[in-house]
Amino acid sequence: MSDTTLYQRLGGDSGIAALVEDIVEAHLQNPAIQARYLPAKDDPAHFEELKGHLRDFLSAGSGGPATYRGRNMLEAHRGMNVNEVEYMAVLDDIQRVLERHGVDEPTRQEMLGITYSLKDEILHV
Ligand code: HEM
């Protein structure tokens, strides 16, 4: 176990903001899932709000100072009927962006565990 928080190992507020920008961009480029995110991009105010929610979710969930004010994972994804391929595409994008940002291997593994653990609230709901 590391004695630094996950939030610190992700680079704090600035690291998390940079990660979210690149994760969302990766989703928009990923043929398996881009159609899911394009409608949000077409509405700039909504798109900024979504990215803010993603930053706050990551900060709040990793020991950072933010308060997450978005919907819980079940409510946010209900009705989308996300499938396994889409779920893996999101997890893969996150892992690739973490690696590109120089996030260390144990921290990437921890993120993989956390993102996988949300499966029952997101997959086929
Ligand atoms: C561990 C995996 C995931 C996490 C942590 C996550 C997290 C989030 C969060 C925090 C929001 C914002 C909710 C809000 O603004 O109220 C969101 C929205 C969204 N998620 Fe996910 N998500 C994950 C997986 C997925 C997957 C696999 C898909 C489908 C490919 C997906 C599609 C979406 C879409 C389209 C929205 C935006 C809805 C809107 O336009 O407001 N998510 N997600």
From TrEMBL:
Binding locations of heme: 53, 77
Molecular-function GO terms, alphabetical: heme binding; metal ion binding; oxygen binding
Gene Ontology terms describing biological process: oxygen transport
Pfam families: Bac_globin
Cofactor: heme
InterPro entries assigned: Globin-like_sf (IPR009050), Globin/Proto (IPR012292), Globin_bac-like_CS (IPR019795), Hemoglobin_trunc (IPR001486)
Keywords: Heme, Iron, Metal-binding, Transport
Protein's name according to its UniProt entry: Hemoglobin
UniProt source species: Halomonas shengliensis
